[in-house]
């Protein structure tokens, strides 16, 4: 079985990774002069792209990846917005129901659990960077409503997603967005203070938590959606 050591492209990949890590170090130094989590020098939504740019990126990815793509604005404590690219499943999908107010499809009322798979892109609002994860979204329900569970992975691993992932990474530079490998920013930045992060979560914040979102990258989230509209179909 081959690997990075035997790959003929390893030297070029190492050069690109070196440039990426240098850009990450520069961003951390610029955004966190206090070297403390939770107090970036730039306010949220300061350095990232505009809403119009996000909409344009959604439209291009939907076309180029031949996949339904949805934008979710980040929460106030998140330094990013999220793009969800539907890879396994069909609209109307769980992300549309959860985030966009789309009525649940008729088959949800049968009580049969379903799973969908997405590429989730976090677009930093502090700097021109993006990180991509594979996420599974499970839906289960009863007569009262539905439980929607989002389960992120620490990267992109499933073979059916790799083609879209590679194309996605190739598109981002046209928007002046640097793709950052999640695995390379999954450790705490040396010499930085965790601030209030340990009181909110368990452990120590990683670089991901400084540049993108506060929650651990693989933290599972759940949403309860009550069935309040009997006319949905």
Main attributes?
seven-stranded mixed sheet, single chain, 28% helix, alpha+beta, 233 residues, 23% strand, globular, disordered N terminus, 7 strands
Can you tell me about this structure?
With 233 residues, the chain is α+β, with helices and mostly antiparallel strands. It contains 6 helices and 7 strands. It has helices at residues 10-31, 51-64, 94-100, 159-171, 197-200, 207-211; strands at 69-72, 80-88, 114-124, 129-142, 145-152, 178-179, 221-226. Strands 1, 2, 3, 4, 5, 6 and 7 form a 7-stranded mixed beta sheet that branches. Strand 3 and strand 4 (129-142) form a beta hairpin. It is globular. Mean pLDDT is 89; it is low at 1-12.
Write the layout of secondary structure elements.
Elements: H1 10-31, H2 51-64, E1 69-72, E2 80-88, H3 94-100, E3 114-124, E4 129-142, E5 145-152, H4 159-171, E6 178-179, H5 197-200, H6 207-211, E7 221-226
Parallel strand pairs: 4-6
Antiparallel strand pairs: 1-2, 2-3, 3-4, 4-5, 5-7
Biggest pleated sheet: 7 strands, mixed
Whole-number radius of gyration? 19 Å
Sheet/helix structural class: alpha+beta
How much of the sequence is in beta strands?
15-25%
Q: What string, H for helix and E for strand, traces the elements in order?
A: HHEEHEEEHEHHE
Q: Report the average pLDDT across residues.
A: 89
Count up the helices.
6
Number of beta-strand segments? 7
Percent helix = 25-40%
Question: What shape does the CA trace take?
Answer: globular
Q: Could you say how many structural domains there are in total?
A: 1
Q: How far apart are the first and last residues' alpha carbons, in Å?
A: 50 Å
Low-pLDDT segments: 1-12
